[in-house]
Each structure stands twice: as structure tokens, then as C-alpha cells.
Design a protein that fits this description.
With 130 residues, the chain is an alpha/beta fold. It has helices at 18-28, 74-83, and strands at 10-15, 32-37, 40-45, 48-54, 67-70, 93-97, 102-109, 115-122. It is built from two helices and eight strands. A hairpin with a 2-residue loop joins strand 3 and strand 4.
């Protein structure tokens, strides 16, 4: 029997303070809170669940996967997040020139120092502010 592993259902991030992380992802990033079960908070990322799991005291927070949020307009998305107090670690920059588009990104961190990014697949020749 063939299986299909083409889609993810959930991503988990370990956090020090689930309340603070829930506020960051819901209030700053605008993700919709799905439900809460004790020290576990579940948010919706366009059909992919984000699980914020409070680590036990003294447990090291692992920083593995980077979450890349696809946006239609990276300049507007960044400005909206900055207006909510989010600090970015870099400027919007082109990551790669593809055959039919360019890939642009800008990075930031959550309260637990997980690396996050905005990404936009832009038409060839697009520049921020154009």
C-alpha cells in the first residue's frame, strides 16, 4: 500500500512560557488560537497546526526548524508586524534568483529565540519599495 506523506499536520515548538508564547503568536503574528490543553497551546497556520509546548523548568529549549511564513507583500507584512512591536534581525533581502521568480526574506525571533521568517516569491525584477 502506498502512503502519501506530502502534507504536514502539526509542528511543535518547545517554549519556556506558554502564555507569553501564545500571546506572541496570536497577538503579534495574528495566528488564530485553536485550543489550549494545560501547558499546550494550539494555533492555526493556514491549516497547519502550531503546537506550543511548555518545557519543564530547567529543560533546554531546542532550536531546530525555521518557520517561514509565506506572505503576498513582504514590505506590508513587515511594516504591520513592526507596528505591533516586532523587531526584525535583518533587512528584506533577496535569497535566491529563480528562473521565473525571486525569493525574498526577512528574519525575526520569537520570545524563546526560535528563528522565524517572512518569505515572498516575487516577480523577476521586483525590489522592496517598487
Amino acid at each position: 500500500m502506498a502512503i502519501n506523506l506530502n502534507g504536514l499536520g502539526q509542528i511543535a515548538l518547545g517554549v519556556r512560557d506558554v502564555d507569553a508564547s501564545e500571546r506572541f503568536y496570536a497577538d503579534v503574528l495574528g495566528l488564530r488560537k485553536l485550543f489550549r490543553f494545560g501547558a499546550l497551546s494550539f494555533l492555526d497556520m493556514a491549516g497547519l497546526r502550531l503546537l506550543l509546548e511548555q518545557s519543564r523548568e530547567g529543560t533546554r529549549i531546542e532550536h531546530g526548524a525555521v518557520l517561514y511564513f509565506r506572505v503576498a507583500d513582504i514590505v506590508l507584512a513587515r511594516a504591520a508586524l513592526e507596528s505591533r512591536g516586532l523587531m526584525f534581525t535583518d533587512q528584506i533581502h533577496r535569497i535566491a534568483e529563480m528562473e521565473d521568480h525571486d525569493l525574498w526574506m526577512t528574519f525575526f525571533r520569537d520570545p524563546d529565540e526560535h528563528i522565524l521568517a517572512l518569505m515572498m516569491e516575487a516577480p523577476k525584477g521586483w525590489e522592496p519599495g517598487s
